[in-house]
Amino acid sequence: MSMEKQAVERARTAFLTRRSRPLEFRAQQLKALQRMITEKERDIAAALKLDLNKNEFQTPLYELVGLESEIQLALEKLPEWAAPRTAEKTLLTISDEVYVQPEPLGVVLIIGAWNYPFALVIQPLIGAIAAGNAAVIKPSEVSEHTARLLGELLPQYIDKDLYPVVNGGVPETQELLRQRFDHVFYTGNCAVGKLVMEAASRHLTPVTLELGGKSPCYIDKDCDLSIVCRRITWGKYMNCGQTCIAPDYVLCDQSIQSRVVEEIKKALKEFYGDDLKTSPDYGRMINQRHFKRVTALLEGETVALGGESDEADCFIAPTVLTGVTGSSKVMQEEIFGPVLPLVSVGSVDEAIRFINQREKPLALYVFSYDSKLIKRMIAETSSGGVTANDVLLHYSISALPFGGVGNSGMGSYHGKHSFDRLSHLRSCLIKSLNMEAVNKVRYPPHSAKKLSWARFFILKRVRLGTLGRLALLAAFVALAALVAQRFL
Q1: What predicted TM-score, i.e. pTM, was given to this entire model?
Q2: Residues 137 and 120 sit within 8 Å (Cβ to Cβ)
Q3: Residue 467 pLDDT more than 50?
Q4: How big is the CA angle at 174 (ends 173 and 176), to the nearest 5 degrees?
Q5: What are 269-328's pLDDT values in tens digits?
Q6: Distance of CA 45 to the CA centre of its chain
Q7: What is the rounded CA–CA span in Å between residue 53 and residue 316?
Q8: Cα–Cα distance between 81 and 107 in angstroms, integer?
Q9: For the sheet containing 339-344, what is the strand order?
Q10: Which residues make Cβ contacts (< 8 Å) with residue 421, sequence separation at least 6?
Q11: Which residues pair with 305 in a beta bridge?
Q12: Of 247, 149, 211, which is closest to residue 404 (Cα–Cα)?
């Protein structure tokens, strides 16, 4: 039996003991995750420094604080999320219990990504634990130091049978995908996402696919470009452009492109100083394969800013391209690196057409003082999420579901959305064995009169408070007696 199969069977055996179900146990495990983050912050930062050149401040800011917030929210709201949820009744069910009961799915496979290798494993794990599941955790082998650390730390803090960690490369992931899970949660690129979905389909296993795509950023020409470009520069070049919701390209009028380039240049100096390569705040490409992939995208393009690179250091300077069209090489795939193409559009109509001619992106950004223009951009395009007059920040709001649409993914999570995504929302109806006379309307032999009464009972919605429901129940009993007289 393979190591991967053993891990899955161990998690399922542990799940079947039902020890992951009590809310007290779930809270205990979540608190243990919080303790791990607090006690091992330096170790986590050291691993991320080796993998992506993230410094000691970026790790808590971009990887850990959001996780702590998610854990706190889950601990605070877990009794509410897990409680039965009252459902609307019809007259036919006015005297019955009608509710939705969240229940654990079972064993969840979490396949993490390498660009935020700690956060993108722990965030879905928080949801899996909160929902009462077991989870098999597969960190990305590309961020090898963080993967190794997760394999060491998680068994020290949370139940090692319910939440085993499987490390390894493609063969190990393929072997995991041959096993049966109750949900597969994958973060990564579209090509692998299709393979994950295909493998899951063999077991009819539902999936959450957090993918990516080319997230557009439209700049209205009447904006304050100093503010706009500072915000875009922050979101585009953090983590060396390796962020799934980073602005992939800019759409703007030709008349402001030179000013956009100049303002980005100013923002880069403000953020990273005169010698950007030595800045402790500027990251590196994850490895040489991705370095070569991104630098190849620059071939034949007009570099208006940046363009310098050092393969030995996996360094690519923040780069801006001009003269880019929809058919340019750099526009054929998600860049996932520190390269920002500027595409000329003459109007918001042209920008909307340009966006809609392509796959639906994970994020959409629009900068404008005109709220009607912003609302129009939202109404006439489709994307996983939208932030107007800033970038990335919709990701940070736990109340908003985060996820893709179409080619950028399926399913959403964060906060309660994680809990619901990794729960089965079970429909429950508990009827009484009394008042059998009312059921005459659905029993044979059927008639026009019975159909008329059935329509009345089924189509009448009930939206009342407690006193109103009691009064309506009394009226319903009287009505049931009348119906019984008609049909008995």
Answers
A1: 0.93
A2: no
A3: no
A4: 65
A5: 999 999 999 999 999 999 999 999 999 999 999 999 999 999 999 999 999 999 999 999
A6: 23
A7: 13
A8: 20
A9: 302-305, 319-324, 339-344, 249-252, 216-219, 363-367, 385-388
A10: 127, 208, 411, 412, 413
A11: 320
A12: 211
Residues whose CB falls within 8 Å of the CB of residue 297, separated by 6 or more in sequence, listed in order: 329, 330, 333, 335, 337, 339
What would the pLDDT profile of 74-125 be if each residue is shown by its tens digit? 999 999 999 999 999 888 888 899 999 999 999 999 999 999 999 999 999 9
**C-alpha pair distances (Å), 196 with each of 202, 271, 408, 409, 484:** 10, 39, 14, 12, 56
For tokens 């007009």, the residue is 302
Sequence-distant (6+) residues with CB within 8 A of 222 are: 368, 369, 370
* Per-residue DSSP letter, 279: -
Rounded Cα distance between 341 and 302, Å, is: 9
Distance, in Å, from the CA atom of 414 to the CA atom of 150, rounded to the nearest integer, reads 21
The catalytic site residues sit at 210, 244
Residue type, 417: H
Helix residue ranges, H only, 133-179: 144-157, 170-177
